[in-house]
Amino acid sequence: MRRSLRSMLSVTAGLLCATSAMAASSLSTGFESPSYTLGGLSGQQGWSVSGGGTTANVVVSNLHPDTGAQHIRMTGVSAQAGSTPTGTTSPELDIFGTTPTTTSWRLAIAGANQTTDLNNAGATYTVLLDSLHTGKETAEMDFNFDGSVLVDNGGASLADTGAKWSNDGVYHTWAITVDANAAPANQRIRYFKDGVQFFSSDLVPASASSGGTTVDTFQFFSDNFQKPNEVADIDNFSMAPVPEPMGVALLTLGGLILRRRRVTA
Fold first, then answer.
1. Pick from 149, 159, 150, 175: which is nearest to 247 by CA?
2. What tens digit of pLDDT does each residue of 205-221 get?
3. How far apart are CA 203 and CA 234, in angstroms?
């Protein structure tokens, strides 16, 4: 029986490989050569791979880039379907305190069935934005197996945002802006698809493992229920401290620049 990836990740949190801090407060990459080489992503430029899979399950690929010639591809772990999640963790950046941040990535998923049949739907993919400096999760977005998009807004279960993800292999831009530096009444997490906000929530209440106020690390995980030909591709990733309300404007400008030139980092 399928368990929620949220609970599975909490069980396996101790297995995640924390990367060493970079001497940088932002990261923008299209996973291009020569900085990245084809093959396992783990160990390249501070990225790690952990969970139930191996380096063969999260790779730098040239099969379906959004721009340029390379991207990240995640495949399933058929021998361990439904067991420990498999995913990748970005380098830990030097972002501290309540610094507002915007994290964006281009994502294309293909091969999933997107049904409510738990035995036939395909994988759930989870994005976690963490503060490894404090050991707390700040935001969570789930690309649920049925095509819905869920987020952690501090409730007992994940909230359905009403947004949908496509299963056609077409890239879309997803972004999360976290602002804990505003007046308490305005502290928000905002979620965007292709530059349009589709949901917002208060900061997640603090607990032993969640309730972070900043973002210095990105994680992308699968629950290993991929269909035989299912893949998830990520390209043109960015994480940076960006003051509101300019965050989305700069994000959009950065995306246009990335799409108009060959990425070299």
1. 175
2. 888 888 889 999 999 99
3. 26
| Strand partners of residue 222 | 86, 125
Length of the chain equals 265
Q: How many whole angstroms separate alpha carbon 111 and alpha carbon 144? A: 14
Element (H, E) at 257: helix 246-260
In contact, 159 and 150? CB cutoff 8 Å: yes
Asked whether 193 and 235 are in contact (CB, 8 A), the reply is no
pTM: 0.84
Q: What CA–CA distance (Å, rounded) separates 106 from 88? A: 15
- Single-letter amino acid code for the residue at 234: I
Identity of the amino acid at 185: A
| φ, ψ for residue 5, nearest 5 deg | -65, -30
Superfamily of domain 5-260: Exo-inulinase; domain 1 (2.60.120.560)
Q: Which of 84, 78, 56, 15 is nearest to 223 (CA)?
A: 84
